[in-house]
Amino acid sequence: MSNAIETNNILNRLPKHLMQFIKPQNYDDYSAIDQAVWRYVMRKNVNFLSTVAHKSYLEGLNQTGISIDSIPNMYGMNRILKDIGWAAVAVDGFIPPNAFMEFQAYNVLVIASDIRQLEHIEYTPAPDIIHEGAGHAPIIANPEYAEYLRRFGEIGCKAISSAKDYELYEAVRHLSIIKEAPNSSESDIATAEKKVETLQQNMGEPSEMALIRNLHWWTVEYGLIGTLENPKIYGAGLLSSIGESAWCMTDEVEKLPYDINATYKDFDITKPQPQLFVTPDFANLSLILEEFANTMSLRKGGLSGVNKLIESNALGTIELSTGLQISGIFTNVIESNGRPIYIQTNGETALAYREKELVGHGTNTHKNGFGSPIGKLKGINLAIEDMSPRDLSAYDIYEEQNITLEFEGGIKVSGEIITGKRNLQGKIILISIKNCTVTHNETVLFQPEWGIYDMAIGKEIVSAFSGIADLNSFDLITHVPSTKTIQIKKSDQQIQLEALYQQVRDYRDNKNKTISRTKVLEQLIEKYPSDWLLPVELYELAAIGNESNLCESILNHLETIKQNRPKVGHLIDDGLEIVRQTVNV
Q1: How far is it, in rounded angstroms, from Cα 36 to Cα 34?
Q2: pTM of the predicted model, to two decimals?
Q3: I need a surface site. Which of 43, 48, 129, 215 has the fewest CB within 10 A?
């Protein structure tokens, strides 16, 4: 199978800055053990989920072309996903939340292409292809849910994070990686867990991203649908966890009606969830999402929106009432009577209108930051943006006029007007001034020797959001993860065990019928006495062939494993039960 990143019409729409997160799936790197893990989880899940999952899950498995027997090649999956308007890409573990959401907004499913170890077959804190491919992909075949997912991404990628959110993201990513890595020491894991715990307990006021991630968790990842008395599973975290999918159906897990209050319910990604939320239908998900979006700076703007951007210490955008958009890292806001009267960015800044950069107002022009008054002129009821050409002339806001404009709150702008820019409705959105001095009381905010002063026009800030208005304004190809998924060098013993798994897989797939399964069992008993999954697969083949003696030998060996490893006893029993249900044993 090809490892190339195949493109299609949906992936071609992705902006360049998202492409940096995509990696080849490297399908040939999956071992026969990995394939056996996938097959076991999928067979057990489909067997169990047929009774407890939302009907869209099993229908979606067929529609998205996900095989029960083999790990999906996602770039082959794309040929099927495109029929429902979606695509899939491989990434390395957790990616930044805003990027993850933005992929969703483009109808692209992000799939962590690694697969969990056999030792973590029931649950892994790290995103893997079982969680993403077997959990997320099938359910998006439901058009109402797929639209919810897209809309969630569209709104979620605009949510403003705090500086602590970025720190917590890196800590969780590191923890998930070392918990899944085979050779991690208990002390390293404990240290990483402690760091995550400490950060979580000292996050302060939750950011918009923290709140919307809660909604994502309790719906997309761990959502239930239906009634409190008889819920069905649709969340990918539950659909892909053979442990939690059964446990969540018990009375030990509290079931709560899904509403806006779920926004404030935090979660621990490393542990099973003590409570879950039940939505009556998929339409309710969209209603709650819109209810939350109405609380976001994206729709409220104002002083709080600017302050959230300042706290994030990351690229963000404010939009003024004229439609002018200012993108950069916001560092300061002057306020008066609870309203912003002056905003300031530091470093590269770009101005745009309707997500398109204004000609001559990119980061090269505003490479040292941008500042502007916000609001109305003092003593004048009519805002500059609402003035007709005759009004502007009456107040000397005119080319080549020397003016002094005093704004409400005490901002003064003095200088000679050069020109102005208007929006499509004819409103003034930007005025360029030379020999300009800008002050607030005794504080000088801009001096003539700094060059041309470009004054944004807008009586209020109507929106503030994470990211930039025009994606071409900044170089966003900057992501370097602090940690990468750990790929260990396999021991000779591990390679030999994988070879035994491959022999059994080849036998089942009719690629090689000459192997002796009795010999494989003997080698397992001698060299790998604790491995439980391959004996279960051998038992299935022996049962299909009505080989009673071999079946008995395998069952005896599995009993020995259960005695020596009681923690895997239920996994063995479940595997044997699946065989008995599919083969007339």
Answers
A1: 5
A2: 0.87
A3: 48
The larger pLDDT score, comparing residue 57 to residue 255, is at 255
DSSP string, 26-45: -GGG--HHHHHHHHHHHHHH
> What's the rounded mean pLDDT across residues 207-231?
95
Work out the pLDDT band at 229, boundaries 50, 70, 90: very high
Any known ligand binding at 131? yes
Q: Token pair for residue 175?
A: 């923890």
92/576 Cα distance (integer angstroms): 34
Q: Is the pLDDT of residue 274 over 80?
A: yes
Task: From residue 580, give the alpha-carbon distance in Å to each of 570, 573, 577.
Answer: 15, 10, 5
For residues 312 and 166, what is the distance between their CA atoms, to the nearest angstrom?
Answer: 9
Confidence of residue 538 (pLDDT cuts 50, 70, 90): very high
CA distance 363 to 346: 11
Of 358, 377, 362, the residue nearest 420 (C-alpha): 358
pLDDT band with cut points at 50, 70 and 90 for residue 583:
confident
pLDDT band at 485 (very low <50, low <70, confident <90, very high): low
Whether residue 552 is annotated as binding a ligand: the answer is no
- The CA distance from 97 to 100, in Å, is 5
**Is the predicted pLDDT of residue 25 greater than 90, yes or no?**
no
Give residues with Cβ within 8 angstroms of 184, minimum separation 6: 178, 486
Average pLDDT over residues 97-111: 92
SS3 of residue 131 by DSSP: helix
pLDDT for res 483: 54
Res 2: pLDDT: 43
pLDDT confidence of residue 202: 75
Q: Which amino acid is at 362?
A: G
Residues 6+ apart with CB under 8 A from 132: 109, 110, 111, 112, 236, 240
17 is in an annotated binding site: no
Of 290, 365, 314, 334, residue with least CA distance to 461: 334
Question: Between the CA of residue 342 and those of 302, 384, 408, 448, 498, what are the distances in Å?
Answer: 12, 16, 10, 18, 65
3-state secondary structure of 53: strand
Question: Residue 220: how many CB atoms within 10 A of its CB?
Answer: 23
Contact indicator for 43, 109 with CB cutoff of 8 Å: no
Distances (CA, A) of 97 to 35, 134, 452: 29, 21, 38
Which of the pair, 558 or 90, is modelled with greater confidence? 558
229-238 b/e (C-beta count within 10 Å ≥ 16 → b): eebbbbbbbb
User: Regarding beta strands 324-336 and 339-353, do their DSSP bridges make them parallel or antiparallel, or are they unpaired?
Assistant: antiparallel
Rg of the Cα trace of the chain? 29
- What letters, b where the CB count within 10 A reaches 16 and e where it falls short, cover 170-197? bbbbbbbbbbbbeeeeeeeeeebbebbe
How far apart CA 161 and CA 143 sit, in angstroms, is 30
- Report how far residue 209's alpha carbon sits from residue 159's, in angstroms, rounded to the nearest whole number: 5
- Residue of 547, 536, 524 lying closest to 574 (CA atoms): 536
Lowest mean pLDDT among 197-211, 318-332, 418-432: 197-211
Name 95's Cβ contacts closer than 8 Å, sequence gap at least 6.
21, 110, 479
